[in-house]
Amino acid sequence: MHQRHLPASPNWYCSRCSDVNGKGVLGFGAKNTVYLLNVTAASPAVTGELSGHTERVSGFAFCSYDGQEHICASTSDDKTVKIWDSEQKMLLKEHNVHQSTITAVHWSPVQKLLLVTGDEKGIVVCYWVSSNDTQSFFPEPRTIFCVSCSPHEENYIAVGYKDGMIVVIDISRKGEVIHRLRGHDDEIHALAWCPRPSEEPLHGRSEENADGLSLATEGAEVGCYLASGSRDQTVRIWSTARGKGVMTLKLPFLKRRGAGVDPALKERLWLTVHWPKGRPSQIVSSCFGGEIVMWDLVKSGKQRWSLLGSSPDGENHSRIVFNMSSFRSGDRELLLSTSMDREIKCWDLASLECCWTLPTMGGFVYCLSFSPVGTGCLALGVGDSMIRVWNTMSIQNQYDIKTFWQGIKSKVTALAWHPQKEGSLAFGTDDGKVGIYEVYSNKPPQISSTYHRRTIYSLSWGPPVPPMSFGDKPSYSLYSCAGEGVIFQHDPWKLSGEASNIDKLIRDTNSIKHKIPPHTDLSWKPDGSVLAIGNEDGSIEVLQAPMLKLLCTVQQHHKIINSLRWHHEHSSQKELQYLLASGSSNATVYVHDLRSAIETPSENPVLVTEPFRTLSGHTNKITGLAWSPHHDGRLVTACYDGSAQVWDVLKEQPVCNYRGHSGRLMCVQWSAVHPDLVWTGGDDFTLQEWAVSKQEHITPPKSKKRFEIEKKRGPQKKPKKKKKASGKGGMKAEESELTLCEESKGAAGSGAEDGQSDNEEEEDNTDAPSVTGGSRESSVDMRGAERVQNGEKFIHAVKREVKEEKKREKPDLFLKKRKPRSILPLSTSMDHRPKEELQQDCLTLAAVRHSHGQSGACVPGSGDHIQLGLFTDRDGLYRMFQEEEESHVEAGHYDSMVYLRLWKGDVIGAINVAVEKGELTDHLLSLAPMAGYQVWARTVEAYVKQLCHQEQFLKAASHLVSIHKLYEAINLLKGHQFYREAIALARARLQPEDPVLKDLYMSWAAVLEKDGHYATAAKCYLATDSSFDAAKVIAKKGDVMSLKTAANVAWVSGESELAHSLSLRCAKDSMLSQDWAAAQEVLRTQDSLLGHRLMFCVNEILTQRLADTGVVTWTVASSHTWSKPSEETFLSAVLGVWQSECAVASVDLVKVKTLHQQLRAVDNPPATTRVPMKQLLSHISLDVTLCALSQLLCDWPSALEELLQALTRGSEVGHFTLMAEMCQLLLPQGLESVALYKQKLDPSDERSSTISQSVEAFFSYQLMYKKWWNCSVETSALTYNPISNGHRLTENNHSEDEADCNGEAPSEGTFSEGFWNVLLSEPHANLQATQRAIAEIQKRVASLIQQHSQCKETPVTPEEERGGSASGSSSESLSTLTAQVAEHHKVLTAIPELLRKYPFPDVMECCIVFLHMEKQSTLFPQHILAQATTLLRKYGSTEPLCKAWQRLTTST
Questions:
Q1: Which residues have a Cβ under 8 Å from the Cβ of 291 and sit 6 or more positions away?
Q2: What is the pLDDT of residues 494-525, one digit of tens each?
Q3: Mapping DSSP to helix (H, G, I), strand (E, B) and coil, where does residue 438 land?
Q4: How many angstroms separate the CA atoms of 26 and 20, rounded?
Q5: Mean pLDDT calculated for residue range 331-353
Q6: Measuring CA to CA, which residue among 367, 386, 447, 564 is closest to residue 378?
Q7: Cα–Cα distance, 1087 to 1093 (Å, whole number)
Q8: Phi then psi dihedrals of residue 1077, to 5 deg
Q9: Closest to 134 measured CA to CA, from 145, 150, 123
Q10: Contact, 904 vs 881, CB < 8 A?
Q11: Angstrom distance (rounded) from CA 1374 to CA 1369
């Protein structure tokens, strides 16, 4: 399905999250998916995914048992183990025996289909897949990090733990521990068994021999070596025969680029080991900074290890390696490694060199951009804070990618290459940063000193505008648009300077007084003459450089604009460069033709409300658009529905749909070099290249897939208390990342989707019922009703309620009242001593009193005599208070201490204590004035802080008002979202012109608008005289009533242009619902919409006239009496209604001319087969309205031209009945009506003659078919009608038209010779034949290119090559076809322009019908038949025409 594919990054900190089988299939866990790759020494290729886990995949392993290599297993943080068939990509079995997070997995290489897993609680589970049996073991109460099954003893399993312990257990003996291998003192990251069953002698550092020179083991015949890698920076070799370590390998300190080992790398060390099957004396391990080391166990000293990728090209991983696995490909043994640097590398273990590198994605792929200078150079912006630049044209390396991370430090959300400067790449990030990278240098990026406050949405290079366009200026400026709705212009020569906000220039140039809507995207026309800006409210503004004069406003979308793209300039049809595609959150893509607005700008901005093309089919928000640089009008769209759609815009038809992503699409780009290739990136962390011609789907998926995607990526509920092993779960690759279009763009548009926001606001303000007298009365009534129904039941209920009420009203009399805490607890406690001591106190007090306080042994109020302070002087009392205060502080009774200070008269001290402890009260605050005004003011301020801490903001603001800090009180309320209260306070106390009041209203309006409370937001705008903004926000809801209200608000406020656009939009919505009365009512309020009123009158009359013909199949909600069908002709009825209802008549020529000019400015794009019938009738009504106005002005050439447009729209969409009915309505007297028009034309005017000939031809064309069907005997030809413009008529059509023809079609003898001659026009036959020939040649050229691309991708056998060369010699070459096209274009140029401008029926089709009718009737003039035959032979040489001619003329 896809060509090249960058998958998601393998998960980090897992002991075995990738594995390869003997057939060269690599699988690895990334997020909650397993990716499968076919691996060779030349290159990798992604072949599929295994999806089913709901959380991160923590382990993956292939079955190594012979014949079962396609079976694989995955474990996940969701505590499940799944068994897969990697060839069929299907789930076979699963179990959820584990109750904790699974941390290790391994297949037994000896026992058939035995899978062993371990979890963080220390449980080892053996799962026999074939029998579906499980057995659990608990060898140690420790966290398991890795497991490995012995390749020689089927019952032995090695288990590595977090604390450095390794055990070998025997599962045949109920998990008995055979060996406990101690030596490591930190996490065991990997275990690997020696592929050789015996323990050969090894050189190394023995655990018993410190000098490391002697043999470590003595040639034991039993057991097997086991290697382990630990976070303690050592690799150890263990003897399972002796149960102890025999060798310790310490990681070498490798200097990289002249620097030592970064200490942070040691902290992040992950030491994995792998023992290749064909190398029993060599093991491979990771190292500190991403290096991979091969150890030779039979060598000693520095010769023991070799570094993989030691060439100066820097092929090593740049960060720590997590997993390694190997397999044999032919005669080469290949090692595959995954790393924190998000790269998968393939190594040749013989040469120790890197074969290839596959980069992977560690985040959402937010943006793509092809360089306009460097051919095939693709830049990727990813959510892992890195930019990748891919040379997609590289022949030697399919994945030639450079990574840039310096200076970014956030998700990369926007990219833009400089249009002329090679290698200059601008980027924008999630945190609002804008910078420029020079990708062909090693310098860090330049960063703009002006930051956005929110996520960067888009970047674009364009011509400088003021103030940057003055003086010495760069050829291009950099423009950035971000989530706060602002567009900055940055000077690429001086990014350190301040960027300018272009809104100021837009305001000044266009004299805008109202609020400018927040911007969400921008796109410069490739020639730099025009800038298109998309806004949050769905509008698009088109501005002319350099002063950014507003040319037109597109009001088509009603939700946030996500993407804008101009058509490229190198099209064969120059008018296509004015096409602007736009995508928003409402799932529909609109394409507008802005040629007239750009080439002939009017004094006032034009309002565009009709699209050139409408592309519908997606079911979710549009996130990306890209025009094909190789085709005319070919567009690809990316959507949240998980698919990318290719459209033929000119035909308004889908071409193909790509569904290769498992998540939502974020961006799309058409290949700059290959016309058949498209690139897409999504939130599934992948970038995919795919061919348009190879897709099996045509249209986007139904909405079901949207919910499947949301289900896959939706947040999973996890236990609240869940701790992972350190180092295991702490550094995942952005698995919880949120989409930017949801965080910023999507949030801004969410309010418009909430149809109940205003109602919800009212509900929030409704007071809840309280327990009052009224509610009690209602409860009594209810009890009375129950008594009547249930008799005695009521008595018991009342008794029970009375008892409960008494319990609530009175405290329990049997419970003793709790005595309040004493404020003098120490002195009070002294009064509860024995009688002797109390009497001694009396003696002591008497002595003190009569000695006048001079008693050295007794100090009343302190120490053991604290109680006496109450009975002596004030000093004694104060001493008692002091000790009581200290006691209260120790007990935490600060309120009691404050009271004591107050009693002493120390008001300031009491307040200070209360402030310090946060114990201020209203009572203390009321006492503060006793200490003076300053103390009171400071106390109020402290109390305000305390109340804010307690979230009593209204009370705090009231206290600020009491000390005349009015602005502080208002800011306090505003800062805590109490906008209503803040405005009430400001209105009550501030002057009406105070700017604070306006700021409050505007801030509240912004919050309300974001939350979807549009009505209240509009009131805020109206309160600040921002009527424009009020009308805009009311219209955001989008329903007819809201639009009508918004239009009336704008009209009352004097915003006539806005009232005009809103009224027109409301009327169109009413028209689509066929509520004609409501539409006219809205239009009647605006004098500027009189022209549209005329058009709506025509549309209503036309709909009523077509109601009985089968064209109009819907019911009308409301209509006017004057629109009912009558005997009066259609145009006469229209003019009569205009005069009676709108006061428009031929007397007032100035008024009629103004209306004609107003409607001529309205876009009326050509019709396509996908245009809905209601919209098509609206376009026809506009043509008829212009025709009628031209008749009132006596401008007969224009009237006939507009009549021709109305007649041909039915033919353009293949609706013959509509065309015939329009002929009947507009030309009621048939060819006589045409003759009357011709009499009013100037015979010498070539334009008028050409138009009248086309009108006559189209009327004769439909008359010809009616004549044929009326006279035809055979009905088989009716059901298969081979006319070229797509008319397919059934017998029902035939019967209806036959009935019409019986009453109107002339008999055979009444057709004049002019009737036949007008259809058999040789100049038109020549024109149409030339156009058909050019189209046929272009089709063959496209087929040749497609065959050539397929030949390049598919290897050709010698026999096919010989056959292909033979056929190639007979077929036409590309140069020959190009020469033929050039010749036909010369013929086309020689044909008069007027002939090419106006439509005409297919002459060859008419000739075939004439010859067929001649078989059934002999009344045709022979020279006419001869002329038809001659034209067919001369211009009907194409294969389809020949077949149709033979089929119809030979049938009887």
A1: 254, 256, 307, 308, 309, 316, 317
A2: 999 999 999 999 999 999 888 899 999 999 99
A3: strand
A4: 4
A5: 93
A6: 367
A7: 10
A8: -65, -45
A9: 123
A10: yes
A11: 12
Pairing assessment for the beta strands 549-554 and 606-608 based on DSSP bridges: parallel
Provide the token pair at 913.
């204590």
pTM for this prediction? 0.77
Task: Say how far apart CA 1228 and CA 1226 lie, in whole Å.
Answer: 6
What type of residue sits at position 662?
S
Q: How confident is the model over 528-546, as a mean pLDDT?
A: 94
Residue 467 preceded by cis peptide, ω within 30: yes
The answer to whether 321 and 272 are in contact (CB under 8 A) is yes
Closest by CA to 59, choosing from 88, 23, 90, 30, is 30
Tokens of 659: 């569904």
User: What span, in angstroms and rounded, lies between the C-alpha atoms of 1367 and 1356?
Assistant: 14
Count of other CB atoms within 10 angstroms of residue 565: 20
What pLDDT, on the 0 to 100 scale, is given for residue 1270? 73
Q: Distance between CA atoms of 896 and 919, rounded to whole angstroms?
A: 11
More confident residue, 396 or 965: 965
Specify whether the CB–CB gap between 845 and 873 falls below 8 A: no
Token readout for 237 is 């070799």
Q: What's the 3-state SS for 806-863?
A: HHHHCCCCCCCCCCCCCCCHHHHHHCCCCHHHHHHHHHHHHHHHHCCCCCCCCCCCCH
Which residues in 528-547 are b (16+ Cβ under 10 Å) and which e?
A: bebbbbbbbbbbbbbbbbbe
The Cα-based distances of 192 to 111, 150, 237, 324, 1026 in angstroms read 17, 9, 10, 11, 74
User: What gap in Å lies between CA 936 and CA 965, rounded to an integer?
Assistant: 14
Q: Which amino acid is at 1185?
A: T
| Whole-angstrom distance, CA of residue 712 vs CA of residue 54 | 7
638, HSE (Cβ side, Cα atoms, 13 Å): 32
Q: Which residues of 266-292 are buried (b: 16+ CB within 10 A; e: fewer)?
A: eebbbbbbbbbeebbebbbbbbbbbbb
Judged against a pLDDT cut of 80, whether residue 729 lies above it is answered with no
Query: Is the CB of residue 1096 less than 8 Å from the CB of residue 1144?
Result: no
pLDDT digits (tens, 9 = 90+) for 429-471: 999 999 999 999 888 999 999 999 999 999 999 999 988 877 6
Number of H helices, E strands in the chain: 43, 57
Query: Distance between CA 1044 and CA 1023 in Å, rounded?
Result: 20
Question: How far apart (Å, rounded) are the C-alpha atoms in residues 826 and 864?
Answer: 10
Buried b (16+ CB within 10 A) or exposed e, 137-168: bebbebbbbbbbbbbbbbbbbbbbbbebbbbb
Could you give the 3-state DSSP secondary structure of residue 417? strand
pLDDT confidence of 1352, banded at 50, 70, 90?
low
CA-closest candidate to residue 561, choices 449, 481, 680: 481
